[in-house]
Amino acid sequence: MLVDTHCHLDAAEFDDDRAAVAAAALGAGVGRIVVPAVERANFGAVASVCRDYSGCMAAYGIHPMYVDRAREDDLDALRETILRERPLAVGEIGLDGFVEPRDDVRQEFYFSAQLQIARDHSLPVLLHVRRAIDTVLKHLRHCRVNGGIAHAFNGSRQQADEFIKLGFKLGFGGAMTFPRASRIRELAATLPLDAIVLETDAPDIPPEWRVGARNTPDQLPRIAQTLASLRDIAIEEVAETTTRNATAVLPQLAGMH
To answer: Would you say the pTM of this structure is higher than 0.70?
Structure first.
């Protein structure tokens, strides 16, 4: 079995064929799909998807690229949703230093507040860390949470080691499949295998063979094969270890039937 630790199955890109996409993933051996929210407005859609499709589990949070339309009472709604739904993580939360224009102060306010919520509820977090890794790490050292995943990791080995020390796993997906992505591929090949989890970020970050097209969670086995090839190990070892890693950092996955 494989675990897709980051897939936006509630996204509008799947409105026409969501059931078929979920069935294809299951048929490809993707037994668990983590579906993170991005803002209060899609908490309900995420909950609905996770009720309707086998193997899907929710995370709730406010994504840094959506804080411009967030209100402080959205944080109260997040707390209430956590109590009601008991998600496996708080996410997708974090910081984004790439998008323009942006309000860094506002991003950090919502990130810090959501780390506190995660700590209060003893939940791990799903982190968005694009071009903001050092600042994210600073916040994590200030507010210690129950680990989590640094999604779409694209930092240095030193930064990777810092996340690992703080109890985090690192998410690798479609970006790793590009031959010219030398830094990501070097990390995928040399990091401890027990630090790595797999993800698609579908419908985004398509792998090399899907450039310009919608990404889907049934692509995860081929992404896993890329990791196996980079490390020169069997795909069975990749599947077994990354699934164990995902369950270790997101313990509620273990309770799913």
So the answer is: yes
